[in-house]
Specification:
The protein is of the alpha/beta class. 32% of the residues lie in helices and 23% in strands. Helix 5 crosses helix 10. The chain is globular and about 60 Å long.
Length: 336
């Protein structure tokens, strides 16, 4: 695979020119980014693959939901519908996307919407009787038709954008210089014991500008797993024949965590946002106990009749600086 990607460097050069030109046209005002009369926060990344956007979006929602009418707006990746849709907990993931459905089922006092055109999405939200006071864009860093007021750029500890290359030779959606648009950079999925010295080394490698603050976060796993019947401690699953079923970009951290907790399991791994076929569902129905991610659970629950279907929630947990980041976000919203 690595050799194949090396052969694709000439194509990456063409992609570089296209994306660089597009960004320059927006930066110079030839292409227009539309701004709105409400605070718009964008959570995104430079690369394809999982950097932890959903847990970070949930962090922002938790921070603001008690004081403001908050709306999340996503593309609704993998859905079979098009255009603007309001998301409610009773929807199917195939209609609205798994991550927006996860937000709608978890937070009962926010608006959740999907629309591939973020301008249309924001304008539809703002036309409602009770419009949101804050809009959080999930995965819209490259959607430059909208000019967000606060950009949170995520990069995974194990795959820093500073060490990556443009598609198709690497995983970057745009040149590294695009990082300069962000107010803050968050290095996600870090080891909990990441030293201050290594943090400084990473900050140096990211080549951020003087106005950008860099934060470091890790994945925090819930102590309990959840099913339609409610929560139970994770260690209750040790007496069951567990199969871990994942349809996410990088299941290695989850697999390693479960192993560290002494859980024995087999693993059925599928691609990110995988739409399960009828034959796959039939196979999964034969399993004794399934443990999955929250994102996969919203897709699997309507399809599986089995009793022992559990998910393990996660949160973004900061190694340090959470109060400082929270203050930055709150100051942006209150001072808008």
């Amino acid at each position: 695979m690595r050799k194949l990607r090396l052969l694709l460097f000439p194509v990456a050069g063409i992609y570089y020119l296209v994306t660089l030109t597009r960004n320059k046209l927006y930066d110079t005002g030839i292409f227009k980014s539309k701004k709105y009369d409400v605070p718009v926060i964008c959570v995104g990344n430079l690369s394809v693959g999982g950097t932890g956007k959903s847990p970070m979006t949930e962090f922002v929602v938790r921070l603001l939901q008690d004081d403001y009418r908050v709306a999340t707006l996503s593309r609704g990746y993998g859905r079979k519908t098009k255009g603007y849709l309001d998301v409610n907990p009773e929807n199917q993931a195939t209609m609205v996307g798994d991550e927006p459905l996860q937000f709608a089922q978890k937070f009962n006092n926010i608006q959740v919407a999907v629309c591939e055109d973020r301008q249309t999405g924001i304008e539809t939200l703002l036309s409602k009787v009770d419009p949101p006071e804050v809009v959080v864009l999930d995965d819209a860093y490259q959607h430059r038709k909208v000019g967000a007021g606060f950009y949170m750029l995520l990069t995974a500890y194990s795959d820093l954008y500073s060490n990556d290359f443009l598609l198709p030779a690497g995983n970057l959606r745009e040149p590294r210089a695009g990082a300069s648009r962000a107010e803050v950079v968050v290095v996600t999925k870090c080891p909990e014991n990441l030293s201050s010295q290594e943090q400084l080394s990473i900050v140096d490698s990211l080549n951020v500008n003087k106005t950008q603050q860099v934060y470091f976060s890790t994945i925090s796993y819930d102590e309990k797993v959840y099913s339609a019947l409610g929560p139970v401690p994770l260690n209750r699953l040790k007496v069951k024949k567990v199969t871990l079923v994942t349809g996410i970009a990088n299941p290695k951290p989850l697999s390693a965590y479960l192993a560290s907790q002494g859980l024995s399991f087999s693993h059925e791994a599928y691609g990110d946002h995988h739409n399960f076929t009828s034959s796959e569902i039939e196979m999964l129905e034969t399993l004794d106990c399934i443990l999955t991610t929250e994102k996969d659970y919203v897709r699997l629950r309507p399809l599986l009749k089995m009793r022992d279907l559990f998910y393990l929630p996660i949160k973004a947990q900061f190694l340090d600086g959470e109060e400082l980041l929270s203050g930055e976000i709150k100051n942006f919203v209150s001072g808008f």
